[in-house]
Amino acid sequence: MLYLEDYLEMIEHLPQELRDRFTEMREMDLSVQRDIQTEQADTEFSDIKRGYNKTIEEADEKMALSNQMFDRFKIRADKRQRESSWVARESRAHSSSSNISRTDTIQMQHGRRTASLKATYEAVAGGELAHHALHAHHGAQHEHGAQPPAAVRTSALRPACLRTRIKPWPPRAAPPRPLSAMNVVANAVEVAEPMEEEWTYDPNEPRYCICNQVSYGDMVACDNQDCPYEWFHYPCVGITAPPKGKCIAAEPRV
Question: How far apart are CA 113 and CA 111, in angstroms?
Fold first, then answer.
């Protein structure tokens, strides 16, 4: 009986002990589950952190590349702006120099044309006056039967081919109309019209004709090799078309 009492006394606290042990086991299971979830969360957090750091690095690389491209484009834009400003300055300088040279050319051409027209006016006026003087002397010759020395000297300056084609003058009629200044200017303008074309004037250019001027317009050559004038302007010798045959200018008679 003693043993039975001891046994009953011992098993009397058994349910409480079992409950305590089961509770302890459940707590251990919960702690294990909590530990497992924490490790998984830590792993996931580590993965997320690594991805974030990688994204930050890639973003920094992109920013560096974009800054490099911006710097390059800025350098190219500044270079093109400098080139365009330089080209604009060069074009303005070229246009200003062209305007200056064009002004000098126009002034030079105007001076050339003025000198040419002046020479033409003088030559035409001299030729017309000599021509009228020759007419007057021919009229006096028909009246008196003799030719004054002035007429001889004037005719001697004309080419021989022109003198041979001069017809005898008819008996004296009405006196010739005096040559007015307007007629001289009008004839000079008509003669000067072909001279509107540009030509280069050289101060050292040789002089020809009895007017001692440079060559211009239409001219007739003298076939005499010893002729000091060599060429004659049409207005100075009183012709408008090339003569037929040889033209030889006689020396002035004294």
Answer: 5
